[in-house]
Design goal:
Elements (H helix, E strand, L loop, with lengths): L1 E4 L8 E9 L5 H14 L8 E8 L5 E9 L2 H9 L1 H8 L8 E8 L9 E2 L14 E2 L11 H5 L40 E4 L14 H23 L3 H13 L3 H29 L3 H17 L9 H18 L11 H26 L20
Antiparallel strand pairs: 1-6, 1-7, 2-4, 2-5, 3-4, 3-8
Helix pairs in contact: 5-10, 6-7, 6-9, 6-10, 7-8, 7-9, 7-10, 8-9, 9-10
C-alpha cells in the first residue's frame, strides 16, 4: 500500500460533495442535466483541480448523483462557490422543490490531518489526484488504529479529541427540506469512478460487485473439485491458499502477498517437520519447534513482502496437512513428497483466485483490472 503525500505548499484541501437526488425514471433526465450543470461549473478558473462523479441507489430507493470536486486551497474554493452561476443555484428555494433535490457536503481538512492510501503508485483517483507525490510502500495498514498512524500529525501530536460533535441537515430558508435533501441513507454503497458515472445495475448489468464475485467464486469452486480430483489434490488444501489471496486484499498486491506468505509458511513448516523427522523428535521437542516456527512467522510481518502474517500460518498448516494426507516425510526425495503437494496447491490457488476476481468483475460490468478491489465498500454511517 502507498500513501499520497502533500508538498510543502499544500496545507489544506477542500472536498466538495455536490449531489442531485431523485426517484423514478421520470426525473432522471432532469437530474442528469443538473449534474452536468454542476460539472460544467467546475471549468471556471477557480474550479477544482480534479473531480469524480458517482452514482448510488440508497436504501429508500432514491438515486443519488454526486460530483466530488477537489481543491488545493480553501480560498480558491470560496471564490468558485461565490460565483453567481454557482451561488444562485445553491441559494435558491427551488433546489428543495420539484422532482429532484440538491444536497452538498464540504470538507476542508488540513493536509496534516487526513490521509488517503492506494494499492498503486500513479494516476490516483479521489483527493490523491491533487496531491504532490507518493510514499514508499507503507506498513501502517490492515490493523486497528493504522489509519490514525498514517495521519501525518500523529507523528508529533496525540490528537486528543475536544469540542462537541454535531450534525446539521441542509434545508431551504423558507421551507422544511424534503426527504431527499441531506445525507445519503446509511446502508447504501458508493462506487467512485473518475470523470464518469459508475455503471448502473440494470437488466443489461444486473449484478452488484458482491454478487458478481460470489457467483464467480462459486462456479470456480465447483470447477476446482474436478481439477483437484484429477491431479490427486485435496480441494480444501486449495481453498486455504485461495482465501489467503482475498484476505491479502486481492489484485496484484494481494497475489504477491498470497504467494510470498503461503510459500514462506510452507518453508518454515518444511524446516520444522524436517527436524522432527530427522531426529525422531519427542513431543516436548515438537512443541518447542512449533513455538519457534510460530514466533518466526509472527515476526515475519516486519518484512513488507510478508506483512500479512496469517498467510504464513496458512502455509504452515498446508504443509502439515500435506504430510498427514500423504503419510510421507518432507525428507523423502520423490514427486510424492508433501512439499510438492503443498507448493502445487499454493500456485494453483493463485490461478483460481485471480480467475475468480476477474470473473467477478466481468459479471458486475467492471473493467478487467487487478488494480482495485471488487467487493462493495460500505458507505460511511451518517447516523
Amino acid at each position: 500500500m502507498y500513501a499520497a503525500r502533500a508538498g510543502v505548499d499544500l496545507t489544506q484541501v477542500v472536498m466538495a460533495y455536490l449531489g442531485v437526488q431523485y426517484k423514478g425514471a421520470g426525473h432522471r433526465d432532469e437530474a442528469l442535466a443538473t449534474l452536468r450543470h454542476v460539472v460544467g461549473s467546475f471549468g471556471s478558473p477557480d474550479g477544482p483541480g480534479e473531480y469524480d462523479t458517482t452514482h448510488h441507489l440508497d436504501a429508500e430507493g432514491y438515486d443519488n448523483l454526486i460530483a466530488v470536486g477537489y481543491w488545493r486551497d480553501p480560498e480558491t474554493f470560496r471564490r468558485w462557490s461565490s460565483e453567481p452561476a454557482v451561488a444562485t443555484r445553491w441559494d435558491a428555494d427551488e433546489r428543495s422543490s420539484g422532482g429532484i433535490g440538491l444536497f452538498r457536503g464540504i470538507l476542508s481538512p488540513r493536509a496534516d490531518r487526513f490521509e488517503t492510501i492506494y494499492s498503486f503508485t500513479d494516476d490516483f483517483p479521489g483527493v490523491g489526484a491533487i496531491m504532490d507525490g507518493v510514499s514508499g510502500e507503507i506498513r501502517e495498514h490492515s490493523y486497528w488504529g493504522s489509519m490514525r498512524e498514517r495521519v501525518p500529525l500523529s507523528q508529533t501530536d496525540r490528537m486528543v479529541a475536544s469540542g462537541d460533535l454535531s450534525r446539521s441537515v441542509l434545508s431551504a430558508p423558507t421551507r422544511r427540506a424534503p426527504p431527499w435533501v441531506g445525507s445519503p441513507a446509511r446502508s447504501s454503497a458508493l462506487h467512485v469512478r473518475t470523470g464518469s458515472l459508475a455503471p448502473r445495475r440494470t437488466e443489461e448489468n444486473p449484478m452488484s460487485d458482491t454478487n458478481g464475485l460470489a457467483t464467480s467464486i462459486g462456479i470456480l469452486a465447483g470447477v476446482s473439485v474436478f481439477v483437484t480430483g484429477w491431479i490427486g489434490m485435496p480441494t480444501w488444501l486449495l481453498f486455504l491458499a485461495w482465501l489467503t489471496y482475498f484476505f491479502c486484499g486481492g489484485g496484484t498486491d494481494g497475489l504477491k502477498l498470497q504467494l510470498a506468505t503461503n510459500l514462506f509458511g510452507v518453508l518454515i513448516g518444511v524446516v520444522t517437520l524436517g527436524i522432527v523427522a530427522l531426529v525422531n523428535a519427542p513431543q516436548w521437542l515438537v512443541a518447542l519447534l512449533v513455538v519457534v516456527a510460530a514466533f518466526t512467522i509472527a515476526q515475519s510481518g516486519r518484512i513488507s513482502g510478508l506483512r500479512q502474517t496469517p498467510g504464513g500460518f496458512v502455509g504452515f498448516a498446508m504443509i502439515a496437512a500435506a504430510v498427514q494426507v500423504t503419510g510421507k516425510s518432507v525428507l523423502e526425495p520423490s514427486w510424492s513428497n508433501p512439499i510438492v503437494l503443498a507448493v502445487g496447491a499454493v500456485v494453483l490457488a493463485s490461478v483460481f483466485a485471480v480467475a475468480s476476481e476477474l470473473g467477478g468483475k466481468v459479471l458486475s460490468g467492471r473493467s478487467l483490472s487487478l488494480r482495485s478491489p471488487v467487493i462493495d465498500e460500505p458507505a460511511v454511517d451518517q447516523g
